Amino acid sequence: MKIIILSCHFFILSPLLFFRPAAFCQEIFHNGGTGDCQECHTTPPALIGSDASSTCLRCHQGRAGTPLTNQHHIATDTASSPLCLQLPPGGDFCWLKKNYTWPVAEGMNFTLSSKGDNHGHNIVALDYGYGPDSNYAVAPGGTYPASSLSCISCHDPHGSYRRLEDGTIATTGPPIIASGSYTDSPDPETDKSVGVYRLLAGQGYHPKSSPEVPVFSSAPPVAIAPSRYNRAETSGDTRVVYGSGMTEWCQNCHPQLNSAYKHPVGSSAVFTSKIISNYNSYISSGAATGNYTSSYTSLVPYEIGSKDYTLVKTRAATLGSSGPAGGVNVMCLSCHRAHASGWDNMLRWNMNAEFITYEGAFPGIDNNSPAQLAQGRTAAETAKTFYDRLASDYARFQRNLCNKCHGRD
Ligand code: HEC
Ligand code: HEC
Ligand code: HEC
Ligand code: HEC
Ligand code: HEC
Ligand code: HEC
């Protein structure tokens, strides 16, 4: 059965449609499972693209002029736009194509650089100009070969992982009736299951054609995204409620990293009362007059420490912009994005500069900011890394966002 809805003006009668809101005219394709074989295969197992990721990007790359209501775009066609335009929680892979250099000091020839390869997970998608990472041969803290990294390293293209009525994750069982990623996703029932969060792969997984890669040992994370998730955050955050398991899921490929990078992370890295209080009062460098009801920022997310989807969904519907209360914990995505970001080490904000704003503006090579702060980016590019927030949301000279939790500035 073909279940692609081409636009808001098309209406194909299918019982599956009742599970999606009309408001954003979202196309449906995987619907929590796989999708029409012919959209990815000429004849199975031959793929339409040169490789798996190129097959995905046929639909998942967006161009300038395509509205962000095409939620599922996670890469920008750089031929259509100098800016990486997509603003989903995982980030825009286009940053992998952005190489920056700048003088180490004014007037000096010696330069520093921020290479595209350092901006994220280098998916190999040859039809779209994405090649393997040139820095790492394998995942830091693990053995996953960089040359095998693709969309299907992390997402199961056949969407077989499903969430059952009792919360169990399985690859077989009741049919998947819809995506399980959203606040408005249906709940699984005895004879119906929903897709796992973002079709992420779980225990026992490796792409069939890649027997060389390590097999996943941890289940997909528990999380719920809002139905509108690819948007500018100029006047409000896109709040994914992360429940638990994201760190453990990243450790499928980065098992030893915890000891290499010393920050506490995962279910045991629970916020102390001091950190809860810092997070809730912190507005910007020098301003600690905020409060619980409005303190949340998606630039510094955390897990609420629950595996219970009913609770996570309720929280997703009710938390608004309120900040942490007890029992929340740090996860890998508190500091990193999952796909790519505008900064080194795929971090959510720049850790390599003393200030992330300059005289009340986002530093850029086109607005007289010091080269050491602009680091080769235009002000508009820097604004995109802030998901189009306003520089005036921050201090005139804002320090890095470790301070959101640690409140030391
Ligand atoms: C979203 C894209 C997508 C859709 C839809 C899709 N496939 Fe695939 N399929 C892939 C990719 C990517 C691979 C390669 C997996 C690998 O490299 O291990 C693959 C591999 C396969 C293989 C060989 C290896 C394996 O995993 O079993 C078979 C058989 C297959 N697909 C059948 C199907 C059938 C039948 C359908 C329709 C019910 C389908 N696929 C739908 C993307 C897709
Ligand atoms: C024919 C177009 C098409 C192709 C090919 C395609 N996708 Fe999608 N994808 C979509 C659309 C449309 C959505 C949003 C609606 C939905 O989830 O059904 C989506 C949503 C997703 C989501 C979010 C799903 C959720 O339930 O949260 C993921 C993850 C995803 N795609 C990954 C992939 C991967 C990986 C591939 C390649 C193996 C791929 N897609 C190939 C069109 C496509
Ligand atoms: C290293 C693992 C990894 C790779 C590789 C990866 N993804 Fe994802 N993807 C994730 C995770 C984790 C999320 C959830 C991010 C979040 O909620 O913060 C996600 C989210 C998504 C979403 C939902 C939008 C968003 O950003 O939250 C889509 C669509 C998607 N991925 C498609 C793709 C496609 C297409 C590719 C290949 C071009 C790809 N992913 C490669 C891990 C990965
Ligand atoms: C399927 C395996 C896989 C999973 C799952 C995975 N990674 Fe990676 N990761 C890799 C590989 C391989 C590299 C090295 C190649 C590269 O950077 O593209 C890497 C590199 C990185 C880097 C360095 C990026 C850079 O460019 O400097 C960071 C940071 C990172 N991963 C964080 C994460 C986080 C956070 C998660 C969970 C959301 C995660 N990884 C999940 C395989 C994975
Ligand atoms: C508190 C913030 C924070 C958390 C939480 C965090 N990281 Fe990082 N990570 C960083 C910073 C900052 C760097 C850059 C370190 C440097 O330059 O020495 C980094 C570097 C990395 C790198 C590349 C450098 C290396 O170590 O080889 C990888 C890969 C990585 N992190 C993965 C992860 C994964 C996976 C998790 C979860 C298990 C995680 N990080 C949790 C802040 C964090
Ligand atoms: C999402 C909140 C959060 C963010 C963001 C965060 N931390 Fe932490 N940090 C914690 C928690 C929770 C602990 C463990 C509890 C404790 O020791 O106070 C911790 C502990 C630490 C510690 C050891 C204990 C201490 O306070 O001396 C250091 C050092 C540290 N963090 C540095 C950083 C740096 C550097 C960054 C930015 C790259 C960062 N943190 C970002 C929450 C966070």
Care to describe what's here?
This protein has 409 residues and is largely without helices or strands. The chain has nine helices and ten strands. It has a four-stranded mixed β-sheet with strand order 6-5-8-7, with no helix packed on it. It has a two-stranded parallel ribbon with strand order 1-2. A two-stranded antiparallel ribbon has the order 3-4. A hairpin with a 7-residue loop joins strand 3 (100-103) and strand 4. The radius of gyration is 21 Å and the shape is globular. The chain starts with 51 loop residues before the first helix and ends with a helix. The structure holds heme C (6 copies).
Q: Mind telling me the C-alpha Rg? A: 21 Å
The number of helical elements comes to 9
Which stretches are poorly predicted, pLDDT < 50 over at least 5 residues?
Answer: 1-25
What is the first-to-last residue Cα distance? 57 Å
Number of strands: 10
- Order of strands across the widest beta sheet? 6-5-8-7
Give the DSSP E fraction (strand runs of 2 or more residues). 5-15%
* Biggest beta-sheet profile: 4 strands, mixed
Question: Which ligands occur here?
Answer: heme C
Topology as a string of helices (H) and strands (E): HEEEEHEEEEEEHHHHHHH
Write down the overall geometry: globular
Mean pLDDT: 92
Structural class: little secondary structure
